[in-house]
Amino acid sequence: MSRAFVNEDHAQVSQAAERRVSDQPNHVTPRGLELLQTRLRALQGSDTDPQRLADLHYFTQRVQSAQVVNAADNGKVQIGCWVTFSDPEGNEQRVCLVGEDEADAAQGLINWGSPLGRALIGAQVGDEVVWKRPVGDLPIEIIDIATA
Fold it and tell me: What is the C-alpha to C-alpha distance for residues 81 and 98, in angstroms, rounded to an integer?
């Protein structure tokens, strides 16, 4: 249809961008659940903005599907643990495994379902695991595990 025949008063002004809900289980830390609930409360209200409604739908789903994981001090890497590891050159890095909505690489918070997270889950101090990266696999050694 030609734009000449579109009534601008009734045209859809904007289309909300729906967030994709991942297929992986929604494992979260207790802090991650608090963050989801805070975001959901902030979005609730009478606002009819399409993007706000799409975000409200997303965060409602995420809170409802959340499976809280409390890290136990069992010597194995799990969600909620801080993990220090080193690469073959001796470079050390420290990260905490969290749920995907809590992930923030700049803060060292890594999604448990990411390639690094999957490599670390279940490992123990002294274990060598392989971090499968797009630029090539990297063997890393677990140096320390601490619960948050």
Answer: 8
CATH number of 81-147: 3.10.50.30
Torsion sign (Cα): 95, 96, 97, 101? negative
Determine the residue type at 109: L
Q: How far apart are CA 108 and CA 83, in angstroms?
A: 10
Compute the distance between CA of residue 90 and CA of residue 111 in angstroms, rounded to an integer. 24
Instruction: Name which of 134, 131, 98, 95 is nearest 116 in CA terms.
Output: 131
Instruction: Read off the pLDDT of residues 48-94 as tens digits, 9 standing for 90 and up.
Output: 888 999 999 999 999 999 999 998 888 999 999 999 999 999 999 99
What are the sequence ranges of the domains in the chain? Answer: 21-68, 81-147
pLDDT of the residue at 33: 97
Degrees, nearest 5: CA angle 31-35-51: 160
CA distance 97 to 79: 5
In three-state secondary structure terms, 15 is coil
Q: Which amino acid is at 54?
A: A
CA distance 57 to 54: 5
For the chain, counts of helices (H) and of strands (E): 3, 7
